[in-house]
Amino acid sequence: MGALRLYDYLESGNGYKVRLLLTQLGLPFERVEVDILQGQTRTPAFLALNPNGRIPVLRLEDGTHLAESNAIQWYLAEGTRYLPEDRRGRAEVLRWMFFEQYSHEPFIAVLRFWSFAGTLADRPPAEIEAKRAAGHAALAVLERRLADAPFLVGDRYGIADIALFAYTHVAGEGGFDLAPYPGVLAWIDRVRAQPDHVAIDAPTGVAVDLDEAGL
Ligand SMILES: N[C@@H](CCC(=O)N[C@@H](CS)C(=O)NCC(=O)O)C(=O)O
After folding, report:
1. For position 2, what pLDDT does the model report?
2. SS3 of 87, please?
3. How many angstroms is it from 56 CA to the middle of ligand 1?
4. How many angstroms is it from 206 CA to the middle of ligand 1?
């Protein structure tokens, strides 16, 4: 069985979801930093791993490659305390993961990305305002759940929390003020207090460079 190998980009919240879960599961892994700003996810070699041209991608034990942060989390969490065993609980995890991909990440993560890539000023103000309004709508949905619940599903921390934490806790980097969402802020503290939590910019995994990885 080969080593788990994560194709990743340190600033990426999508990559962070997988990094954080691997660390909390105590699974050793190799990590390849792929510079998304330099087009390194769009080379023929990378597209052979993920035709969608995006990190994260995880090379599994059998040498096959799995893309999509939430699919990777689901794969890794199967049979662990991070994913409920009951049908209703599992459906609820999927509910929050689909919400994250459709109603949260496209707004909160994208404004953060435009900020750090330095392209925010090139965007039409109306487009930015539409993303900001949609991002606040997503934060309000989280607040409604977290105002009186410790975690997103049941009363236990799991991959739904990791999926939503990844971009929510750095939403400020995209200009979102979290002060109106006290339940979300308290949940962020609870997620940070989980055993073996690592920060988004923490060096994790055994570094393998791009050449060595054949990219
Ligand atoms: N739905 C995907 C989104 C992945 C994604 O957007 N990855 C970005 C970094 S956060 C990327 O690799 N962008 C490079 C590119 O588009 O070329 C997931 O959840 O994994």
Report:
1. 86
2. helix
3. 7
4. 22
State if residue 106 touches ligand 1 by the CB under 6 angstroms criterion. no
69 Cβ below 6 A of ligand 1:
yes
Mean pLDDT of the chain: 97
Q: Assess whether the C-beta atom of 123 lies below 6 angstroms from ligand 1.
A: no
Q: What class has domain 5-81+200-207? A: alpha beta
Give residue-wise pLDDT tens across range 105-125.
999 999 999 998 999 999 999
Q: Residue 39 is encoded by which pair of tokens?
A: 């087009």
**Whether the CB of 73 sits within 6 Å of ligand 1:** no
Share of the chain above pLDDT 90, in %: 98
Pairwise CA distance, residues 173 & 111, whole Å: 8
CATH of domain 87-192: 1.20.1050.10
Task: Please say if the pLDDT value at position 1 is more than 80.
Answer: no
Is the entire prediction scored with pTM above 0.85?
yes
68 lines ligand 1 (CB under 6 A): yes
- Burial class of residue 51, CB neighbours in 10 A (0-12, 13-18, 19+): exposed
Kindly list the domain boundaries of the chain, sorted by start residue. Answer: 5-81+200-207, 87-192
Closest-CA residue to 164 (of 183, 139, 186, 147): 139
